[in-house]
Structure formats: C-alpha cells, structure tokens
C-alpha cells in the first residue's frame, strides 16, 4: 500500500516532477509504438496538470475510476511506471498481468478500480463503488475521471442523477480536452462547459483552468472536502487540451493549426516551469537534476517492460470466472 | 433422481408461485447476508414487505434507467456488496448490455483477476402475457455467448427459489431469466434453505428411447409430450437444463448415449441458440451413439407477437414435440 503525504501547501516541486514524469512516460510509450515495439495507446499529453492537481487532493481512503487515457492518473496516484509500461506491452509483470494492455489498467492496491475503456463505462460504475462506501462505511470518496466525449453519452446523465438522488460521495472530474476521438467538441455540443450541466441534477459544479496545476489542486481540495463532508457528488471540470492525437500514431491533420498552437503556448508543464523559476521556487540546477531523474526513471521503465516476459499461454483462460 | 426430488421427500414442502418463491429466496438471502441488497424500477414499491423488513438502504427504487442500474450493481459488486437487480423485461436489458457484458463480464479477466462481480440480474420473458416483442424476447443465448457471465432459467417454483439463492451466493454475475408464463403457476417448494446448484441439470423424467432437452416453460411441454408418448409405448427422458451456462454437458451426454436420440426444445429462436450449442456438443461428443439426426424445436426467427393465439403458437408445444419424436423414431 502506498502512503500519501499530506501537505498544506501546493506541492510545487513535486507537482512539476510528477507532470514531467507523466510527459516523459507518454512520449516513451509513443516512441515504442512508433518503433513497432508496442501496441497503440491513448496518451494524456497536455492534460498532466489535471491528473496531478486532482490526485494531490486525495488520500489513501479514496478510490479512483479512470479510462483509456489513464497513464497520467496512475502515475500521479503513485503507480510504478515500470509496471504500467509492462502492461501496455502486454507483459506478465504489468499491473493486470498483460491482459489489459494500455486501455483498462486497474491497480486495486492503489484504489484505482474498474478502469473501463468503453467511453462512459467508468461513469456507469462509479455510483456503485460509492454505494459500497455509503453502506459499508468509511470516509473515502470516489473520484471518476472522464472526458467531454463521455459526457455526451447518456450514461453520464444517468450516473450523476443517481449519485445526486442517493447522496453518493462521488467527485466527477470531467477533463474537457476539447476532443472526442477525432471530432472537435465544438461539433458535438452546444455548451462550452460540461459544468453547466451539473445544476440540472442539483449537483454543485465548477470549471477550473485544467492547465494550471496549482489552480486544479486548490479547486480539487475544495471539491474533495465538500464531497467528503457533505457525502454528496460534485462536478469539477478541468478545462484543458489534448496535445497529441486520439491514439498513436496520429498526424493530427484534422486539428486546426492555430488552435493547437495557442494551446501549446499554454502547455501546463512549460508554463509551470517558468512560473516556479520566476518565483524562485526552484533553481535551474534543481530543474536540471529533476529532469535527469525523470529521464532515468522512464529509461529504466522502458528497459524493465521490454525485458519482462509475456504471460504464459495458460493465462488465456484464467480469471474468466471467480 | 434429481436433487430437488430427494430434498422434497425428506422435507416439508410449501405450495407457492415462482414469483413468491423468488421473493422468499431474496428475503432469506438478505437475512443471511447483510451485503445483499436489491434495487430496480419499482423494487421497493412492489416489494413493500421486503422494504419494510430491510429498510430503504437495502431495498431501493431507481430511476427508469437500466444502464445505471446495472452499472451501479457492477460497481457495488466489485467493492463488497452483493446486489440483486431487477430489470423487469428481458428486452430492456439492451439498455444495460454495456454494463453487464463489458464491465461485469469482462473486468475480472481484463484486470488480471483483481475484481469479482457477485451480482444477479433478474429479467422476465416468454409468451403468456401478450405483451409483445419489446417486453418478450428470449435473448438468453446472448449472455451464454458473453464470457464471464452465468445464465439460469428455471421451470418450476422449487428451482426458482433454489437457483436464485445459488445465484445470490455465486461470486460471478448471474443472469436470471424468469419465464413469464410460469410466474403465477403454484408449485411445491421445499421448506427451508432450499438450494439448487448452478450448472446441474435435472432429469425431470427418466426414459430410454429418446431424450428431450429443454429449459423454462417448454420443459412442461416436454413432460406433457412424454406422457402422451408413454401411452404409445415410447419412453422419453426429459432433461431440464436449469443452467444454460455453465451447461451440464455430462447429464445431457449420458442421456443421449443411453437413448441415441435427442430433441432439443426451447422458446427462443433457433439461430445460434442454446439448441444449436447442444446439437454441436452432441455431434462432437456423442455422435457414435446417435441413432437418428438431432432435432431442434424452437420459436420462429420472428419478433414475439402480442396476439394471444399467435403468441401461443410461438413456443413449441407438446403436440409438436410428440410429432417430432414419432418422426425421429420412424427414421
């Protein structure tokens, strides 16, 4: 069981290092795919601040449901990059023994449960996990990560409605990354903000700049505190952008170049580095050392994953039934 | 002799409808295990006695939204509860296929065995209420084809009770198909903790000349046909599958090896149905015992009609079974 540090102040340097680790991990995964050494995967490049900010507001009592774009959430929760990458490569040392691949990695020991790659699947499962908390006791809350695409599924509305009616402790985190696979959100929904939908279900809602890790951390702490105390759902929208394509490889020819460029200017990592350096919260030397540590971690993860064995053929039919 | 018959001889029996037997099974299991809860559309309203005994936490009405009912059950099952959900009519399960098939059925395997899904989904189907094709669709084979799920469909009050209790105690997601036409026909149910194991067929009548395999209310048609055939000197064995997955292959194969003839009967349509699976299994594993080609008697490849006479004609009846056996014997 991983232990979680409880800090009063935003974990500035730690937040930056975790975001750098996620970015390096995703770029490593994509490089392995490009080299023909890995199946495809959906990266969370550009969305690191959302993952790190929300996770930093949680503790070991809490449970998390994520989706196909999960590496950021997993790393921010403290999962071992070696075992995530091994899972992506379908190796026996992966968190699910290689049977998940990149798309539905769960890590029960860290409270990351029931990851579903069916867009909206995680939304259907979250109220039940929270119902267990409600009936079996404990102060833990349930956090479910989904995107603007999943919010377009009917199940989002069914999920948040039942969570509201049954007073379930669910923090809904909509990572509005502006893309629903290969379709721009602007083509599919009238609202700019998913958070405006929460009021229809009597659920308190807030949109936060999803590219500002300190802003996400602060908003998530308030939201978590509300859910933990009131035992009611909350909808937090982290407004962000998917900087890479839907899945690897993706030339992103369908993406408006100006739009992409404007969001690159707001890269959550580059802007945070700049801010920390300007505030003297970190020195250039410390930043260099941090980046070297991250590089070493990810190189080691790649080596571990590549060298790990595939599952034995007996695994083909194990764990179908309990 | 079946487990159920053995139990009946030893114990007191009560006369009750399958509907009442299911309610009793649920109440007994909720008393036995406080992790068991039930929810669905109108579950607390119609099950007011259950709601009175166990309270609003464990007996819940839900929004009219099958997807979130099933998804909530799967999430709760994976994290310590044992939900029994009622989706009313089998065609309504189309709104919950994602949650039942993709989540409850697959996430154990996908996660490398990190989660179990002890949940029961109750649905009703079959002719008898003239409710038409969007309330009546024997789609049980869809779930037999979906890995990770178990599927049961009882034919009598005792099995309704015993199978539901087993389903609630099972650590896998179980689809419980209740044949509408049987729900209000009283039958004998052993008193007390009556359990029917999942995966065990019942030899409802022993015979030597032909094996009739069925489940749900067409078991009754097979038994009626067997009585008629007996008058003609033909000894028919009737197997009530009770569980469609896992399938009790041994009981079916042992019978077919004995009789050399198999007539497979169900209300669901033929293509890729349980009868097709049985026919393939018999061909693979008991071919040399066969004295005649296997025969399937099923509902037509058509939506279920509402009109009473058409609906009654949908499911294979005793006369059709008798005719099929006579033809097979002449072969």
Set out the fold topology:
The complex is a heterodimer of chains A (322) and B (331).
Chain A (H helix, E strand, L loop, with lengths): L11 H23 L13 H8 L7 E3 L5 H7 L3 H8 L32 H16 L5 E6 H4 L2 H12 L4 E7 L2 E2 L2 E2 L19 E6 L3 H18 L3 E6 L17 H8 L3 H11 L5 H24 L15
Parallel strand pairs in A: 1-2, 2-3, 3-7, 6-7
Antiparallel strand pairs in A: 4-5
Helix pairs in contact in A: 1-2, 1-3, 1-10, 1-11, 2-3, 2-8, 4-11, 5-7
Chain B lengths: L2 H8 L2 E4 L1 H15 L3 E5 L2 H4 L1 H7 L4 E3 L4 H12 L4 E8 L7 H8 L2 H4 L9 E6 L14 H5 L5 E3 L4 H13 L4 E6 L7 E4 L11 E4 L4 E5 L3 H14 L4 E5 L2 E3 L3 H11 L2 E8 L4 H12 L9 E5 L8 H7 L3 H13 L1
Parallel strand pairs in B: 2-3, 2-4, 4-5, 5-7, 6-7, 10-11, 10-13, 13-14
Antiparallel strand pairs in B: 1-8, 6-12, 9-11
Helix pairs in contact in B: 2-9, 5-6, 10-14, 11-12
Overall description:
The complex is a heterodimer of chains A (322) and B (331). With 322 residues, chain A is of the alpha/beta class. Chain A has helices spanning 12-34, 48-55, 71-77, 81-88, 121-136, 148-151, 154-165, 213-230, 257-264, 268-278, 284-307, and strands at 63-65, 142-147, 170-176, 179-180, 183-184, 204-209, 234-239. In chain A, α1 packs across α2 and α1 (12-34) packs across α3. Chain B has 14 helices and 14 strands. Chain B has helices spanning 3-10, 18-32, 43-46, 48-54, 66-77, 97-104, 107-110, 140-144, 157-169, 218-231, 249-259, 274-285, 308-314, 318-330, and strands at 13-16, 36-40, 59-61, 82-89, 120-125, 150-152, 174-179, 187-190, 202-205, 210-214, 236-240, 243-245, 262-269, 295-299. In chain B, α2 (18-32) runs parallel beside α9 (157-169), α5 runs parallel beside α6 (97-104) and α10 (218-231) crosses α14. In chain B, the strands form three sheets. A seven-stranded mixed beta sheet of chain B has the order 3-2-4-5-7-6-12, sandwiched between helices. Chain B has a five-stranded mixed beta sheet with strand order 9-11-10-13-14, sandwiched between helices. Chain B has a two-stranded antiparallel ribbon with strand order 1-8. In chain B, α12 (274-285) links the parallel β13 and β14 (295-299). Chain B has two domains: 3-190, Rossmann fold (3-Layer(aba) Sandwich); 202-330, Rossmann fold. The longest helix of chain B has 15 residues, at 18-32. Chain B is an alpha/beta fold. The two termini of chain B are 30 Å apart.
């Amino acid at each position: 069981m991983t232990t979680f540090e409880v800090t009063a102040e935003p974990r500035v340097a730690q937040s930056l290092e975790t975001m750098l680790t996620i970015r390096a991990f995703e770029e490593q995964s994509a490089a392995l795919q490009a080299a023909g050494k890995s199946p495809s995967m959906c990266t969370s490049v550009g969305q690191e601040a959302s993952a790190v900010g929300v996770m930093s507001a949680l503790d070991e009592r809490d449970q998390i449901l994520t989706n196909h774009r999960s590496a950021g959430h997993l790393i921010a929760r403290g999962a071992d990059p070696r075992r995530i990458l091994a899972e992506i490569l379908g190796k026996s040392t992966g968190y699910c023994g290689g049977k998940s691949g990149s798309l539905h990695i769960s890590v029960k020991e860290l409270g990351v449960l029931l990851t579903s790659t069916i867009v909206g699947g995680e939304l259907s499962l979250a109220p039940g996990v929270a119902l267990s908390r409600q009936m079996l006791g404990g102060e833990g809350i349930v956090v479910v990560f989904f995107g603007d695409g999943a919010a377009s599924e009917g199940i989002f509305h069914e999920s948040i409605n039942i969570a509201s009616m049954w007073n379930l402790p669910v923090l809904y985190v909509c990572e509005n990354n502006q893309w629903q696979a290969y379709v721009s959100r602007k083509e599919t929904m009238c609202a700019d903000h998913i958070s405006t939908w929460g009021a229809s279900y009597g659920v308190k809602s807030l949109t936060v700049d999803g590219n500002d890790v300190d802003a996400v951390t602060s908003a998530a702490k308030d939201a978590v505190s509300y859910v933990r105390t009131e035992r009611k759902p909350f909808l937090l929208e982290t407004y962000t952008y998917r900087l890479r394509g839907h899945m690897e490889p993706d030339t992103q020819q369908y993406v408006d170049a100006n739009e992409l460029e404007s969001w690159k200017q707001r890269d959550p990592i580059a802007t945070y580095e700049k801010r920390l350096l300007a505030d003297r919260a970190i020195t250039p030397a410390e930043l260099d050392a941090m980046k070297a540590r991250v590089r070493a971690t990810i190189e080691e993860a790649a080596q571990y994953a590549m060298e790990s064995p595939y599952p034995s053929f007996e695994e083909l039919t194990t764990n179908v039934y309990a | 002799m079946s487990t159920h018959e053995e139990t009946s001889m030893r114990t007191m029996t009560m006369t009750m409808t399958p509907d009442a037997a299911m309610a009793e099974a649920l109440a007994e299991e909720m008393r036995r295990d406080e992790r068991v809860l039930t929810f669905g559309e109108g579950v607390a309203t119609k099950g007011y006695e259950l709601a009175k005994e166990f309270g609003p936490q464990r007996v819940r009405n839900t929004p009219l939204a099958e997807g979130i009912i099933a998804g909530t059950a799967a999430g709760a099952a994976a994290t310590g509860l044992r939900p029994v959900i009622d989706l009313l009519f089998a065609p309504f399960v189309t709104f919950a296929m994602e949650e039942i098939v993709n989540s409850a059925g697959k996430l154990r395997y996908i996660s490398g065995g990190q989660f179990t899904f002890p949940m029961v989904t109750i649905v009703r189907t079959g002719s008898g209420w003239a409710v038409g094709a969007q309330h009546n669709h024997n789609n049980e084979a869809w779930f037999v084809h979906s890995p990770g799920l178990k599927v049961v469909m009882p034919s009598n009050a005792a099995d309704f009770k015993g199978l539901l209790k087993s389903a609630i105690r099972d650590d896998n997601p179980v689809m419980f198909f209740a044949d509408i036409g049987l729900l209000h026909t009283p039958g004998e149910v052993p008193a007390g903790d009556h359990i029917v194991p999942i995966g065990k067929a019942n030899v409802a009548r022993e015979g030597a000349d032909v094996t009739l395999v069925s489940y749900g209310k067409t078991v009754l048609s097979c038994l009626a046909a067997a009585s008629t055939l007996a008058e003609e000197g033909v000894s028919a064995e009737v197997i009530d599958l009770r569980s469609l997955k896992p399938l009790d292959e041994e009981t079916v194969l042992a019978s077919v090896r004995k009789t050399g003839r198999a007539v497979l009967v169900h209300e669901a349509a033929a293509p890729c149905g349980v009868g097709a699976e049985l026919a393939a299994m018999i061909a693979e594993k008991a071919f040399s015992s066969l004295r005649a080609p296997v025969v399937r008697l099923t509902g037509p490849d058509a939506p279920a009609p509402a009109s009473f006479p058409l609906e009654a004609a949908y499911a294979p009846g005793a006369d059709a079974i008798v005719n099929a056996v006579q033809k097979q014997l002449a072969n």
